[in-house]
Amino acid sequence: MTAQILDGRATLKTIKAELKERVAGLAERGIVPGLGTVLVGDNPASQWYVGAKHKDCAELGITSFRRDLPATASQAEVEAVIDELNADPGCTGFLVQQPTGLDEMALLSRVDPSKDVDGLHPMNLGWLVLGKPAPLPCTPMGIVELLRRFQVPIAGAKVCVVGRGLTVGRPLGLILTRKSENATVTLCHTGTKDLAAEVRQADIVVAAAGVPNIITAEMVQPGAAVLDVGVSRVDGKIAGDVAADVAEVAGWVAPNPGGVGPMTRAMLLTNIVVAAERAAAAPAE
Ligand SMILES: Nc1nc(=O)c2c([nH]1)NC[C@@H]1CN(c3ccc(C(=O)N[C@@H](CCC(=O)O)C(=O)O)cc3)C=[N+]21
Known about the structure:
Layout: E1 4-5, H1 8-28, E2 34-40, H2 44-60, E3 63-69, H3 75-87, E4 93-96, H4 104-110, H5 122-130, H6 138-149, E5 158-162, H7 169-176, E6 184-188, H8 195-200, E7 204-207, E8 225-228, E9 232-234, E10 237-239, E11 252-254, H9 260-281
Helix pairs in contact: 1-9, 6-7, 6-9
The structure holds 5,10-Methenyltetrahydrofolate.
The site of 5,10-Methenyltetrahydrofolate has 17 residues, from helix 2, strand 4 and helix 9.
């Protein structure tokens, strides 16, 4: 058996075409969504991600507000840029690219929650815990959207999430256990005693530990969906959390690159369009 590929690149293309129509609909009403990014330092991966986000926006007719700051930028300087984007009505949503090397919680908290297209503001994470509508984190939503579009059954599925990070594992557990997804989630982490035993139970495995090849073929139930979200760099190349031979056992595989990464961008674009639509429906005071 060889697994079906959960193709994030193709799905990003499809979602872009869908969103392009919604952006055109906004344009007819004189509204242009605008994405702001705040990038601190010269990490090449971060520069690539931010560049890709603005390229996506240009394709859709979303305006870009790019603020690149040197690695020497202080907390106060970054906060001043956040204040500027909060106040700019043309910037309908923005994000602070991580990592910054600064006090990230203070930066996240300073973003206007209604412009938080990353869904990582403490207030929006609070709405997620409470089950109320709010911007949702892009990578976990990208994972759910990828599963949906390839018709991987989610309701009733046993999902093993490996990693409890703020941007993937922790919010993904919250999203998948909502009534609308109805999965049963096991959240594994460095304190998990027998990771192989937990993974073996799962219909869906999401590997977001950042440990190369932590998921191997003999841990995976035949026919399971395995999504690789791990990003490590080994000799300058991206290394995922999932070993190559998993594709011989799994029913579906989201590769890395080409799986969840592009979906993160697709959900960012979705959050930008939704934030602009919401701002248009309820103009600010
Ligand atoms: N505030 C904030 N928001 C983020 O959304 C955010 C962040 N900080 N910090 C870093 C992570 C990482 N991230 C990715 C985005 C796109 C790809 C992506 O499109 N990857 C392609 C190409 C990868 C390559 O070849 O380098 C792929 O997987 O096919 C990957 C990873 C967003 N992040």
